[in-house]
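Sample 3 of the quickstart, ligand PMV:
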Amino acid sequence: MTTSSAPGKIILFGEHAVVYGRPALAVPVTQVQATATVSATSRPGIWIEAPEIGLASELSRLAPDHPLAAVIKGVFSALPPPVSPHIFKENGVESGGATIHVTSTIPVASGLGSGAAVSVAIIRALSAFLGQPLPDERVSTLAYEVEKLHHGTPSGIDNTVVTYAKPVYFVKPPSPPGRGARARAEQSRSGEVEILRVGAPFTIVIGDTGLFAPTKESVSDVHTLWEADQPRWEKVFDEVEEIVQKARRVIETGDIPALGPLMDKNHKLLQEMTVSCPELDRLVEAARRSGALGAKLSGSGRGGNMIALVNARNAPALAEALISAGAKRTIVTTV
Ligand code: PMV
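Result:
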């Protein structure tokens, strides 16, 4: 039996602009995680159990574009043949199969990287079960392929931060011309990870609006805006980039209070991109009124989560203030 867990994540700065080649900063949230356990079974076949979403099925019965089917097939195709049944035999299964049990405490469709975390946990647990644990770079690339099913045109930030489970400075790399789509995807997701040095720890309170917000929709709406007036939006994305670069320096030097105004500015630009919503704005305002050093939405917006920077001792009071302002749950995390 093999088990693997992967954390949730938040984007500190740069969401949406990151899709247009600007940098973004993201950090893992270890208070929530996805876990996959693979065990040998006497039943033939690959059985997937994900009780939280009411799923119990044999792999071949899932639609080919089901994200869990895609991730499992991705692992099989990434390993050198023959993977099965030869390797199952080596794991002591003569004629049976395997059960992949998936659980997660990461809220879905809320900007906390639940899809990427489930993929990463399955990729690691299954490849280890098959006796060929995959390196991080390969894990991230495979999870990226599945992210495309969730998101359409993901930048790759979610799979990157969740795989490496460290604060990252992320830039979506340009695809090299003249190569196959698969090779392009693989090259463009590898070797580009910059782990962010954190000069002094800081505390973030995450507030969940409880609204499900498909990333695909807000990303596509921003794209429509961009197509209609590219000079205007390129300028907005440049402003986001400036914030990200400043935030990076501030995090590295540990001058944490200076992060607050940068979060406020980033939120304003996200409002301009039309990806905030009244529920997010209400929580952001409540956080600022209750002593946060800065606050912004995190992730694709239109629901999901917001984040607020606080002095550690004020975190419980701020979390309470967010609940009073309508948050469905809060998480306090230290970067
Ligand atoms: O999955 P979310 O909600 O954290 O959104 C991802 C961040 C975006 O920049 C909006 C999209 C992307 O692919 O980077």
